[in-house]
Amino acid sequence: MDKLLIQGGQPLDGEIRVSGAKNSALPILAATLLADGKVTVGNLPHLNDITTMIELLGRMGVELLIDERMSVQVDANSIKELTAPYELVKTMRASILVLGPMVAHFGEAHVSLPGGCAIGTRPVNLHVQGLEQMGAEILVEGGYIHAYCKDRLKGAHIFLDTVTVTGTENLMMAAALADGVTILENAAREPEVVDLAECLIAMGADVRGHGTSTIEIHGVESLHGCHFDVLPDRVETGTYLCAAAATRGRVLLKDTREDILEAVLLKLEETGAEISTGKDWIELNMRGRRPRAVNLRTAPYPAFPTDMQAQFVALNAVAEGTGSVTETVFENRFMHVQELIRMGADIDLEGNTAIVRGLDYLTGAPVMATDLRASASLVIAGLVARGETLVDRIYHIDRGYECIEEKLQLLGATIRRIPG
Ligand code: UD1
Fold this sequence. Notes:
The protein has 420 residues and is α/β, with parallel strands linked by helices. It contains 14 helices and 24 strands. It has helices at residues 22-31, 48-59, 86-89, 99-106, 125-133, 165-176, 191-202, 234-246, 262-270, 309-317, 335-342, 372-384, 395-398, 404-410; strands at 3-7, 13-17, 39-42, 63-66, 72-75, 83-84, 108-112, 137-141, 144-148, 157-159, 181-185, 206-208, 214-218, 226-229, 250-254, 274-278, 281-285, 296-297, 322-326, 346-350, 353-357, 366-368, 388-392, 414-418. The strands form 6 sheets. The protein has a 4-stranded mixed beta sheet with strand order 22-23-1-24, with helices on one face. Strands 2-15-17-16 form a 4-stranded mixed beta sheet, covered by helices on one side. It has a 4-stranded mixed beta sheet with strand order 4-5-3-14, covered by helices on one side. Strand 22 (366-368), helix 12 and strand 23 form a beta-alpha-beta unit. Helix 8 packs parallel to helix 12 and helix 11 runs parallel beside helix 12. The longest helix is centred in the middle third of the chain and has 13 residues, at 234-246. The model has no long low-confidence stretch (mean pLDDT 96). It binds uridine-diphosphate-N-acetylglucosamine.
């Protein structure tokens, strides 16, 4: 298993390009299953999760053409197997995103249940209930969700009792080919949901209200091919901004967007960071100052994202003052806290709140990544710590951060991958 070795203590300083959003690329790749024509998806990040989704489509017999710039052309007409097998789903929960498109387009789908997950139980009951409301027959047996629909799915009025990102996406994709109108209430408003809606529209779908909590989808009989570039990754953007703030440095991020990061930028400004933005770039400068601790609470978009929580715990750990960080989206998403404490951080966990008392410095230590965003927080801690930090199990980080060590090296960090 590869590890990352970090020599901390230097402020980050430099410019890098932000990759395409993983959480947008995954549903959009799944949406290609809805089209009768060829769909080309561009600006895909080089990430293990993207490779897994491509492998999943390939296993189903879907023909894929990948060019060297990571554009993928998908021809769903060649599909042979309507199954997402356990070996792939267990490595990536987002595989559940093929359920809606498959049953809507091909009348049948067999998708392994995702099972346990490091950050809470994360059920998929809302995906299943929504499809049932649209007329799919669903049987959960032998660890698989089997979905059938003899004719077309039917439009339905669906109220989601929890805001779910992939749930909204799955149902929006299924509704695009359903007969009649589907209304999704209490829908997720995340930019990635909006990006998927825009892609569906480019394929000929009739989707309205995306970006609000009520999405209306007028089903069409068929969808056609298109070319679609995924939006920039707001979590990758936020992670590098946070790393620059924690190290008292400066970073200019290109090919990103400030309008999808408002809650995060506000918090970074509260730490004392100077932030300037343009149409497709964001610059953060600490001018050598120590950040101030911030209080925050995660919640669905447009509030502060749970995927940035761990990075802010690391930032607070070296900030001036005490910050409280409350997680409301997932249970058990504080696995990074124990590892940060091993690096000297002063953190108390009280239920779903971490009280972080900022220290002058952390101390390098061997630590273990437990999930994707937790590993990003350990890298940030390693960058600010005195001495050497060895982050183990970085396969988690490779799921969501493209070339993290190369990008950090470009920003002046002393970091290298140790193959294992
Ligand atoms: C997506 C993101 C993930 C992010 C999360 C929250 C992708 C591929 N992943 O995950 O990075 O952290 O949104 O912003 O886009 N829930 C139910 N029943 C369901 C579905 C969800 O109770 O059927 C609950 C979950 O347990 C959780 C909450 O809803 O407490 C939100 O989860 P959800 O938005 O579904 O997360 P994902 O879509 O899996």
